[in-house]
Amino acid sequence: xxxxxxxxxxxxxxxxxxxxxxxxxxxxxxxxxxxxxxxxxxxxxxxxxxxxxxxxxxxxxxxxxxxxxxxxxxxxxxxxxxxxxxxxxxxxxxxxxxxxxxxxxxxxxxxxxxxxxxxxxxxxxxxx
Length: 128
Hints:
Layout: H1 3-14, E1 23-29, E2 41-50, E3 53-57, E4 66-69, H2 77-82, E5 91-96, E6 118-127
Antiparallel strand pairs: 1-5, 2-3, 2-4, 2-6, 5-6
């Protein structure tokens, strides 16, 4: 598949969902570090939940942290939109609705069903 085909299938996945936006629901600790920019490498600790079920916990897996590049579609759209608003050192809860997460298909391999809202508990460790 070409990059263009991937973008078309990505759009189709979210086309029938009601539109709502991700939001930082609660900040437990304000960050004092810099904001990440496009193409920044972001490193976090993250615990993800669908309802009460933990689907991912970087402190238990991934050598204790998760790193991704912002702005290149390595993560769900809700992260792409909200991480530029966060500072290094911030600890928060990020609520991501289905249209900015895994859409109508979900992500069955991780136990994420269709139209699932995901709650992420995030500790923003560093940006490069």
